[in-house]
Specification:
This protein has about 280 residues and is of the alpha+beta class. Helix content is about 30%, strand content about 25%.
């Protein structure tokens, strides 16, 4: 099975992993890799206006990283924020930076551009290198476990630069923002972060440590699967209304079903949804 990403006019698309395969052309290129590929990083050098249409089929890709100059940065910013890109105008709100890094590390990775306003205008930072060092230390000291990331500086003038943080999809999920004795877990959905539900946190943890696990079907599992068959997507609250088991047992059962690859969770800011996982 092959995963494809359509794009336009990529000058160069190297992939830094020996066991990965890549094919590309200079125009209307198609990035091709096995669907089960495990790449540490994908570096895309933007040559002309390009549109990243989909990376969802590249399984276990650790990060989407853009190595770029000012021209390419502006082209990326024109596409706005999304699943893999977030803008922050200033570096003086480190807690917001930490939340974005946590969200990317728990999801599919991405790029955080500091020195770009919400409209996508690269305004830059006068002391970008100092800001990058401060934010790097702040991230490492306030996220547990420490997330996989790096940064580069993109000069936009003689005096200002944009910081590009490249965050990988981590292998030690769930990552959390340490606030006192608590740990807040965020997850990137489209162009925003959500605070992870109890179920999502347990699914992230279980998926990292119990891949390929089997599941024993009990009355509860059978009942939930029958209920979900009747609807395209259902929330935990909707499922709770239809079964005779406690909310905690339903929660644990949903985690097991998702971890086993039977159900799929769709994280949402209000209430996560569940549906049957499409098998390839």
């Amino acid at each position: 099975m092959w995963a494809k990403v359509n794009s336009f006019s990529f000058q160069q698309m190297p992939i830094i992993k020996e066991n990965c395969e890549i094919k590309y052309q200079c125009t209307k290129s198609i990035l091709i890799a096995p669907a089960k590929v495990k790449a540490d990083c994908l570096f895309l050098n933007w040559h002309s206006k390009a549109e990243l249409l989909s990376f969802n089929n590249i399984i276990d890709a650790r990060a989407i990283s853009f190595s770029m100059n000012i021209k390419e940065l502006k082209l990326l910013c024109e596409n706005g924020e999304g699943q893999f890109v977030e803008f922050k105008q200033k570096a003086n709100h480190p807690n917001q930076i930490v939340e974005e890094v946590v969200g990317f590390a728990n999801a599919k990775g991405g790029s955080l551009l500091v020195g770009v306003d919400d409209s996508g205008n690269p305004c830059g930072l006068k002391f970008a290198e100092d800001d990058a060092i401060f934010l790097t230390d702040y991230i490492n000291n306030n996220i547990t476990p420490q997330p996989p990331f790096e940064y580069t500086l993109i000069a936009i003038s003689k005096t200002k630069s944009v910081i590009q943080f490249r965050i990988q999809s981590g292998s030690k999920k769930p990552y959390g923002f340490k606030i006192g004795d608590t740990k807040k877990v965020f997850y990137r959905v489209d162009d925003y972060n959500i605070q992870a539900s109890r179920e999502l946190k347990n699914i992230l943890r279980s998926t990292m440590h119990n891949r390929g696990q089997t599941i024993k079907y009990t009355e509860l599992e059978n009942e939930i699967l029958k209920i979900i068959e009747q609807g395209v997507r259902l929330s935990k609250a909707q499922i709770n209304q239809k079964v005779k088991f406690s909310s905690r047992k339903v929660s644990d059962c949903l985690v097991r079903l998702v971890s086993a690859g039977i159900l799929k969770i769709i994280p949402d800011v209000d209430d996560d949804l569940y549906e049957y996982h499409e098998q390839s």
